[in-house]
Amino acid sequence: MASSRAAASSSYHSRLRIPPRRAPHTISVYVLLLLVFSAVLFLFSQRQITDVDQKNLQEERPQDWDRYLTVRSNGGLNQMRTGICDMVAVARIMNATLVVPQLDKKSFWQDSSTFADIFDETHFIKSLEGDVRIVKELPKEMESIPRARKHFSSWASMSYYEEMARLWKDYKVIHVPKSDSRLANNDLPLDIQKLRCRCLYHALHFSPPIETLGKV
Ligand SMILES: *[C@@H]1O[C@H](CO)[C@@H](O)[C@H](O)[C@H]1NC(C)=O
Prior knowledge:
- Strand 4, helix 5 and strand 5 form a beta-alpha-beta unit.
- The chain has 7 helices and 5 strands, in the order H-E-H-E-H-H-E-E-H-E-H-H.
- It has a domain of 150 residues: Rossmann fold (3-Layer(aba) Sandwich), CATH 3.40.50.
- A 5-stranded parallel sheet has the order 3-2-1-5-4, with helices on one face.
- The chain is elongated, with a radius of gyration of 33 Å.
- It is α/β, with parallel strands linked by helices and 216 residues long.
- It binds 2-acetamido-2-deoxy-beta-D-glucopyranose.
């Protein structure tokens, strides 16, 4: 009887002992779940942060990223400089990304120089990045889509270009075959006039080889 009680008690104890042995297990499962949960929470919050960052960037610079203005400059170097800076302003007014303009290679100088041969292309893009998004080339996927070809009216004012923005309804790329149409000098908002000045006097520097040659 005593031995059977002992057996009973030992089996009672062993039954009792089971939960404390399981407990650490359960706790580690809880800890693991908690870790996984916080990891998920962390990743999610990171994602939200990047989403917010991108949104802020787009609000700061309202240009639509996927609308492109491609330009073929025309005339001599001086005329091309002013034309290029007018197109920088036009891209700003029309909320477009400007593709670095092509230079005239035929009509005056028979000069095969590219934009980057004459101007410091990286400096041009970088120094205007707060105003207009400029890229070196049209993205590959945009090359084959139909584009609007537009000879802009000469000496037109801001409202004309705002009106031209309706072309974005049908096209993602507007090609300007001549850059000498010129923006009106009067009645342009001050920020657009300032942008043209910044472009002419700060953004369009000669390329390093020309600068070096000039200093010799
Ligand atoms: C350019 O974007 C701004 C801000 O989103 C908007 O107010 C303006 O009307 C747009 N301009 C044109 C010409 O679409």
